[in-house]
UniProtKB/TrEMBL annotation:
It comes from Hallella faecis. InterPro entries: Gfo/Idh/MocA-like_OxRdtase_N, Gfo/Idh/MocA_oxidrdct_glycsds, Glyco_hydro_109_C, NAD(P)-bd_dom_sf. Belongs to the Gfo/Idh/MocA family. Glycosyl hydrolase 109 subfamily. The keyword Hydrolase applies. Gene3D superfamilies: Dihydrodipicolinate Reductase, domain 2 (3.30.360.10), NAD(P)-binding Rossmann-like Domain (3.40.50.720). Residues 61-186 form the Gfo/Idh/MocA-like oxidoreductase N-terminal domain. Keywords: Glycosidase, Hydrolase, NAD, Signal. Pfam families: GFO_IDH_MocA, Glyco_hydro_109_C. Residues 1-23 form the signal peptide. This is Gfo/Idh/MocA family oxidoreductase. The keyword Signal applies.
Amino acid sequence: MNIKKTFMAALCAVMLLPATAVAQFNWPYEVKNGVIVTKVPERPAGQKDALNLTTPKINVLRVGFVGLGMRGHEAVRRWVYQEGVQIMGLCDHEQARAEASNEQLRQAGLPPATLYSGEDGYKALCERPDVDLIYIAVDWEHHFPVAKYAMEHGKHVAIEVPSAMNLDEIWQLINLSEQKRVHCMMLENCCYDFFELNSLNLAQKGLFGEVIFGQGAYRHDLDPFWDAYWKRDANDKLGWRLDYNMKYRGDVYATHGLGPVAQCMNIHRGDRFTILTAMDTKSFAGVKKAEKRLGHKVDNFRQGDLTNTMIRTEQGKVIQIVHDVMTPQPYSRMFHLVGTHGVSNKYPVEGIALDNESLKKAGIDTKTNYYNGEAFLNDADMKKLYAKYQSPIVTKYTEMAKKVGGHGGMDFIMDSRLIYCLQHGLPLDMDVYDLAEWCSLAELGSISMDNNCIGVEVPDFTRGHWNDQKGYRHAFASPEEEAAQEAANHEFTVKLKATAEKAWKKYDKKNAKNKKVAKK
């Protein structure tokens, strides 16, 4: 068989897929020297990378939400606490969901948003010139078409996880971000959990030495949730998420575990993923869940109950990522870092262990017998450690985050950092290349397992720029700039709320009139 002709035919087939097609694992690849290599499209002429992308400051951030189910409705609840923003539009396939989210604005004393519904309702929202950001929380298969349409219309996008389901979608989002010079951020909330943020700060300050190994996972029994996922119609017995697991093999939900580890390891900021191999169990439990709901035998349930992916980096480091949503077990993201001077571990017990050299650096008395890093710090020494090395993001947002909530507060911190960076014209905490690297485990792992767990090269999604920046970092404005923006945010929100009562009276009157006409 002519590999080149087959390769190009497959590539053409990918490019002809309609934007709204069901996600497919069909990106072209070939075997070279015993390793699978996928196609890396050349960067179009005149197109520049989007590393450290900055855009003009947005003093008042105007946002539209698409998808108002589990995640979207909760996101709107959190955003009513944010100052300096205005929720302009609310969109869901089902009109009732949009109406329910709008009521959250009423309860918060904010003016109503414009509502959109139906299969293509998001398009009118994305076309609005007075919207800066589209916040996307639809089902997985619609993440990409909504994001693509929004970016084509010049909008920044923030997309729930996983933001792209295959390599075709990934490369298209990269090109759109680079071409349009708009941000494309994945809403990976686990990068904003308190322990992960503090561990990242400790790693950046050198307390762990060289971080050489990391573990991450999504181990979460979804039995209580399978039937709650959105269904297209009465014939849809599985709901979109169980259906997706039935059709696709690979770590389809890698980002919760991978994101925080990748940041600590400076991925595409001095290091990069080079090769991965994946291995899964047979589907023992998952297939039974599908058969129970479908009422017939299922012969090809693609997703194994547990998927294990091993990744090696350019700098010779290793990451292990596990996915298991089928078996009963305590929730775990397996966050674990191993460094040359210490470790960080979150599950099942949070703990930091440091050798004597790092203990001295942290100002902790080495007379306490930690056996040169073989034991976790006690509570008193953990307090000392965090007093000196707590993440500035944790310090800034903890009080409000715990009040507002959202997975314990990390969702609120994630939203706040997104707003902060857009308002100050700073690079976002996660860029389109993070999205690409973390989401790519799904199709790359599937390719590995479908070829007897062979190694698969991980593409350099930056196309040559992975080593331009030395070390991952969060961007911050000056204290003076922060204070000025926060004052402006508060002033805007006070004025906005002053318009709410009048706006709602007008909205309710128009709504009542429309319902009266509809009855006729």
